[in-house]
Specification:
Layout: H1 2-77, E1 83-85, E2 96-97, H2 98-103, E3 157-158, H3 162-168, H4 174-202, H5 206-216, H6 228-232, E4 241-246, E5 248-254, E6 263-269, E7 280-286, H7 288-299, E8 301-306, E9 324-332, E10 350-354
Parallel strand pairs: 3-5
Antiparallel strand pairs: 1-2, 4-7, 5-6, 8-9, 9-10
Helix pairs in contact: 1-4, 1-5
């Protein structure tokens, strides 16, 4: 009786073998598809992170050029604590440094008028409040705003305080003037160079597409087509900054040999003199149109990228299901407006990815 029962079990077991084999093949094909999807998801995450990292680097470099670089260069070359000018007629007036003379003339952004002149922005600060001193410079009265008005090519912008030159009897200092011009010419070159590098990296999504291609391998897609659809998601979010250049500057000084002891003005036209490319960079800001896009980048943008499904044992055409991967990529700084370029330039942009 037992042997007969074994024979009865063997027959259905044999009949189940094809089903078991089908299940095994199904698992293998599902694993193969999942592995391909994960490989392309990893490539998409890397490419999206790389693309926004180039934008983050550019924004941070621009914020540095707007505030921290000029502040540090002037602070180190015109020591705030080195008082070199005494009051001309009022003994109650404090002694003055070259740093204060240029800062209060509106020449460069700093942390503020009061407090410790040697203080500098801290890494722990959520916002670096570097700004131009505008109380004695009507020409720069609206510079510390997110959207400054158009800069006039005909305006002579002061780079030292007329009030201080008059009250302290400031004499002509060609070395200090030359250093001011050289510092901002140097900043002009930094801004242009970093802008050109970013535009080259972000041209036609090349950085994204090559990053995607290198991570999926040559068999995943063709270099000319790889990542093209995903790269389109970043096209309208390419960083746009509006630089502010000035072409005319003016200085004030008192000629000690002049009996009238009057403050003189020296206008200097960079374009007319054909010096330093005829203009000096001051700072750059985000236009109104791009400011809204920066706010969207703070919350993240959706990036999708199709991928080619591998062939399978069952000859099912998976392409008709349009397989694709998705990631949400965000570029964020310490403000919810996501504008850490100007005013208060704070170089703290970073990239985040969300599943």
């Amino acid at each position: 009786m037992i042997k007969n029962k074994k024979a009865q079990i063997a027959l259905p077991a044999i009949l189940l073998i094809p089903t078991i084999l089908l299940v095994i093949y199904l698992l293998l094909e599902t694993t193969k598809l999942s592995r391909e999807k994960i490989r392309h998801q990893f490539a998409l995450d890397t490419a999206a992170f790389t693309e926004l990292t180039s934008a983050s680097n550019y924004l941070n470099a621009t914020a540095y050029t707007n505030g921290a670089f000029p502040f540090r260069l002037f602070r180190e070359n015109f020591t705030p604590t080195e008082k070199v000018f005494g009051p001309k007629s009022n003994p109650e007036q404090k002694e003055l440094s070259l740093y204060e003379l240029f800062y209060r003339g509106g020449a460069f952004p700093a942390l503020g008028d009061d407090g410790d002149w040697n203080s500098s922005p801290k890494d722990t600060d959520t916002e670096w409040e570097l700004k131009f001193y505008t109380e004695e410079s009507e020409e720069r009265s609206s510079w510390n705003t997110p959207n400054p008005p158009n800069i006039s090519d005909q305006t002579f912008y002061p780079v030292m305080s007329k009030n201080y030159a008059d009250n302290y009897g400031i004499g002509w200092n060609p070395d200090a003037v030359k250093l001011y011009v050289l510092i901002y010419y140097f900043l002009s070159q930094i801004y242009e160079d970093q802008k050109n590098v970013y535009l080259k990296l972000s041209k036609e999504g090349e950085f994204f597409r090559k990053g995607y291609y290198l991570n999926v391998g040559s068999g995943g897609c063709k270099l000319s087509e790889c990542g093209r659809e995903g790269a389109k998601n970043f096209k309208e979010y390419k960083v746009q900054t509006e630089p502010v250049y000035i072409k005319k500057i003016k200085f004030y000084y008192v000629n000690p040999d002049d009996d009238r002891d009057e403050t003189r003005e020296i206008p200097f036209d960079l374009e007319e003199q054909e010096m330093f490319d005829g203009r000096l960079y001051q700072y750059s800001y985000v236009s109104r149109s791009y400011a809204s896009k920066l706010r969207r980048l703070y919350k993240g943008i959706d990036v999708t990228q199709p991928f080619k499904a591998p062939s399978n044992y069952f000859n099912v055409n998976l392409e008709k299901f349009r397989p694709r991967n998705h990631v949400r990529a965000a570029l964020q700084c310490t403000k919810e407006s996501n504008n850490c370029i100007w005013p208060n330039p704070t170089p703290k942009y970073q990239v985040r990815l969300f599943p």
